[in-house]
Amino acid sequence: MPEVGFPVEMAGRVPVVTAPVEIDITSADGLRAALVAAAARGHGTFVVDMSLTRFCDSSGLHALVAAHRRAQAEGGEMLLVVPDTTVLRVLAITGMDQVIPNFASLDEALAQAAVAPPGHAGAADTLFPSPSPEATHAHTSLPDHHLRPTRSGRH
């Protein structure tokens, strides 16, 4: 199967990668390449717009975590746009919602990218923090809207 590519578009001075509907083993390499390209174009700070994404497996999470680490190592930041509660739940269960800054809209993420010093867009300082309350409760039968984090950057 041919590798899927994802264009990197500029929103002002901030590169934005639009993630696919499904991020899995078949699309993770293409996404990874786009994330590297975005980091190079935006002085290390860029946005991953996951507004269309409805599924993200472990290969997708691995690509996102690797890009997040790389951006921080280069003095930048990767910001996620994750309006879908199913995808947000995956981030909460893994604790990544507390590690990688995430926002409900592209406008919010772009505003944060414009004002935040590199490496300080609201992310935790450790890669694997203690499970968030959302992650702790993620295995219950609560509706997804109860899992929406209340951390800064999310309204």
Rg of Cα set: 14 Å
Q: How does the overall form come out from the CA principal axes? A: globular
Proportion in β-strands: 5-15%
The portion of residues assigned to helices is: 25-40%
First-to-last CA distance: 40 Å
What is the succession of H and E elements?
A: EEEHEEHEHEHH
Provide the low-confidence segments as ranges.
Answer: 118-152
Main β-sheet, in a few words? Answer: 5 strands, mixed
Mean pLDDT: 79
- Total beta-strand segments: 7
CATH fold category name: Transcription Regulator spoIIAA
Structural class by secondary-structure content: alpha/beta
**CATH level 4 superfamily:** STAS domain
CATH class: Alpha Beta
Order of strands across the main sheet: 1-2-4-6-7
CATH architecture annotation = 2-Layer Sandwich
Topology of this structure?
Blueprint (H helix, E strand, L loop, with lengths): L7 E4 L2 E5 L3 E2 L4 H14 L4 E4 L5 E2 L1 H16 L4 E4 L3 H10 L7 E2 L2 H10 L17 H5 L18
Parallel strand pairs: 2-4, 3-5, 4-6, 6-7
Antiparallel strand pairs: 1-2
Helix pairs in contact: 1-2
Q: What's this, in brief?
A:
It contains five helices and seven strands; from the N terminus they run βββαββαβαβαα. With 155 residues, it is α/β, with parallel strands linked by helices.
Can you describe this structure?
This protein is of the alpha/beta class and 155 residues long. It has one domain: Transcription Regulator spoIIAA (2-Layer Sandwich), CATH 3.30.750.24. The chain contains five helices and seven strands, in the order βββαββαβαβαα. A five-stranded mixed beta sheet has the order 1-2-4-6-7. It has a two-stranded parallel sheet with strand order 3-5. α1 packs parallel to α2. The longest helix is centred in the middle third of the chain and has 16 residues. The radius of gyration is 14 Å and the shape is globular. The N and C termini lie far apart (40 Å).
